[in-house]
Design a protein that fits this description.
- The complex is a heterodimer of chains A (138) and B (413).
- By secondary structure, chain A is of the alpha+beta class.
- Chain A contains 2 helices and 6 strands; from the N terminus they run H-E-E-E-H-E-E-E.
- In chain A, 20% of the residues are buried.
- Helix content of chain A is 33%, strand content 30%.
- The radius of gyration of chain A is 32 Å and the shape is elongated.
- Among the domains of chain B are: 143 residues, Beta-Lactamase; 141 residues, 2-Layer Sandwich (Heat Shock Protein 90).
- In chain B, the strands form 3 sheets. Chain B has a 5-stranded antiparallel beta sheet with strand order 2-1-5-4-3. A 5-stranded mixed beta sheet of chain B has the order 7-9-10-12-11, covered by helices on one side. In chain B, strands 6-8 form a two-stranded antiparallel ribbon.
- In chain B, strand 11 and strand 12 form a beta hairpin.
- The longest helix of chain B has 83 residues.
- The two termini of chain B are 63 Å apart.
- The chains are: A alpha+beta (138), B alpha+beta (413).
- Chains A and B meet through helix 1 of A and helix 1, helix 2, strand 2 and helix 4 of B.
């Protein structure tokens, strides 16, 4: 009788062990599946902070001929500021008049300044933190 | 405990592995399709930019007076950055950068991009593709485009989550299905055990009835004989003879019964087959005549075999009596002997109704019977006797013809 009970106990342990292994296997597979989601293109991120590239220019608006704004900088130089599409300005209700003193924060490419922010008495936002224009559809 | 049966557990694991592999294959397929779509988009964007930049430069060449700032390709930055699928565009002529719409600046791109972009390179959520083209005569430009793959990545992540849910649900359903199969199987085993126990009890009942029946008659004869002699006050040689015969019958019966449990102990001796057949004919012909059965025993050349005469006679008698019972009245039974090089075959053939196919496989099992009065031990005994002699029994039955072959090996000379 005792031997039978012992045999039964061993059998029970065997089943539990095998089932335990089975559940571990299932859990491992699930983790593996989740892991797959993160491996596609899993290389170091190359997107640096935009801020190091930014320029800040203060000056007076000389001329606005959308999409170009001519800015007379405090350093005496003239800058061409690319304003983006007119519809975007109209949609946002942005407006600038010649003679206004503004501060332009953005990046420079070729002969142009591409503004992220234009500050006068208000702040006009034209690009996101990374530098993509706000009129770009998501 | 989910599964008690090892076989069920093994099959379940195999099914789960196949299901998992199918899930992985599905994800691989989705990813491949998305990648191919990204590559196609990158090449389309490249072709579009070739055309756009080429057209812009052509326009600049054709117009007589162009403002200086329009001659700078950076003019296109706002337009190109407005395209949602483009992360950035770089146009170079020699070492001069004509256009760079990467917000962080192209110089921040890893060198690997420029080394591998001609074949196409996937990095993070951007696919880079580059090449050279001649937009206008004598102007060879290098063009690099970066395509945004965040949408494809999002689609893939959602596909993985969906697949994971399907896998988990499927796994649970599979587990439940196997659990119920396992439970049903256990239940069936339990029922089979109970049925087997019932069958054993029924068989025991039959056996007890048979033993009681076989013992009662000789015992009655013995008791009646003894009572007769007690009443007469003298010993009667006839009655004593009857008592002796009945006691011998009882001894024979107990020996037979013991043989079912111990196995047959045969004592082979040289036996003439012809004599065996004659003895059977003599014993069974009266019974055949009562039933109006034409019982024909073939005359054979004398063959001598090493057999246990008593058991073989009993086995042959059992088969012939079965044939008589199967026919009932008016029919034919043939007893023949066929000599082969290595064996001798006793053939018992009848033209009775035949044995149903479903019964044929159980014929030689103990306690299997289709008769109301039988115990189902007759053919079991036949098989045991023949096998004890190293032989075999064959049955061939159809409607109107049944043949039993009791095959005995010839003695080695």
């Amino acid at each position: 009788m005792a031997q039978e009970m012992l045999a039964f106990k061993k059998d029970e342990d065997y089943h539990m062990l095998t089932e335990g292994k089975m559940y571990i296997l299932l859990a491992s597979w699930s983790i593996l599946l989740v892991f797959i989601t993160s491996v596609w293109g899993g290389q170091p991120d190359f997107s640096p902070s935009f801020k190091g590239e930014e320029v800040t220019i203060r000056g007076e608006v000389v001329e606005i001929n959308h999409p170009i704004l001519v800015l007379q900088g405090e350093d005496g130089k003239k800058y061409l500021v690319r304003l983006g599409p007119y519809w975007f300005w109209k949609q946002k209700g942005y407006q600038l008049e010649p003679g206004t003193t503004i501060e332009v924060i953005g990046f420079k490419r070729g002969k142009f300044i591409f503004p992220r922010l234009i500050k006068d008495h208000q702040v006009l936002r034209l690009r996101d933190e990374r530098g993509f224009p706000l009129w770009r559809p998501h | 405990m989910l599964f008690t049966d090892k076989k069920h557990r093994f099959v379940f694991l195999i099914a789960l592995v196949i299901f998992f592999l199918a899930t992985l294959a599905e994800l691989f397929l989705i990813r491949t399709v998305l990648e191919k779509n990204a590559i196609r988009n990158a090449r389309s964007a490249f072709i579009f930019l070739e055309a756009r930049i080429g057209a812009y430069l052509e326009t600049l060449r054709l117009l007589p007076q162009v403002p200086e700032y329009l001659q700078d390709l950076a003019w296109l930055t706002d337009e190109l950055q407005g395209q949602p699928s483009l992360v950035g565009v770089l146009v170079k002529e020699g070492n001069s950068v004509l256009l760079d719409t990467f917000p962080e600046g192209f110089f921040n791109l890893p060198p690997e991009v420029f080394e591998k972009c001609r074949q196409g390179l996937m990095m993070n959520e951007v696919y880079f593709y580059c090449g050279e083209f001649e937009s206008v005569p004598n102007r060879r430009l290098f063009l690099l485009v970066g395509i945004d793959l965040s949408y494809e990545h999002q689609v893939f992540k959602e596909a993985v989550i969906l697949t994971l849910l399907i896998f988990l649900t499927g796994g649970v359903l599979l587990g439940l299905a196997f659990y119920y199969v396992d439970r049903l199987s256990r239940r069936q085993e339990e029922l089979e055990r109970r049925l087997s126990a019932s069958e054993k009890l029924a068989a025991m009942g039959k056996l007890s009835a048979m033993i009681a029946h076989e013992i009662r008659n000789p015992l009655n004869s013995i008791l009646m004989g003894l009572q007769y002699m007690a009443e007469m006050g003298e010993l009667s040689p006839e009655v004593l003879q009857t008592i002796r015969q009945e006691a011998e019958r009882l001894t024979e019966l107990t020996g037979e019964l013991l043989s079912y449990t111990k196995g047959f102990e045969i004592h082979p001796e040289p036996v003439s087959v012809r004599q065996l057949l004659e003895e059977l004919k003599l014993k069974l012909l009266p019974r055949a005549q009562i039933q109006n059965i034409d019982f024909q025993v073939e005359t054979v050349p004398d063959i001598v075999l090493h057999l246990d005469r008593r058991w073989v006679l009993r086995a042959l008698e059992n088969v012939i009596r079965n044939a008589f019972e199967a026919i009932g009245k008016d029919g034919h039974v043939w007893l023949r002997v066929e000599e082969r090089p290595q064996e001798v075959v006793f053939l018992i053939e009848d033209d009775g109704p035949g044995i149903p196919q479903k019964d044929q496989e159980h014929l030689f099992e103990p306690f299997f019977t289709t008769k109301d009065s039988g115990f189902g031990l007759g053919l079991y005994l036949v098989r045991k006797v023949v096998e004890a002699h190293g032989g075999r029994v064959e049955v061939d039955s159809r409607k109107g013809r049944t043949v039993f072959r009791l095959v005995f090996p010839k003695p080695h000379i």
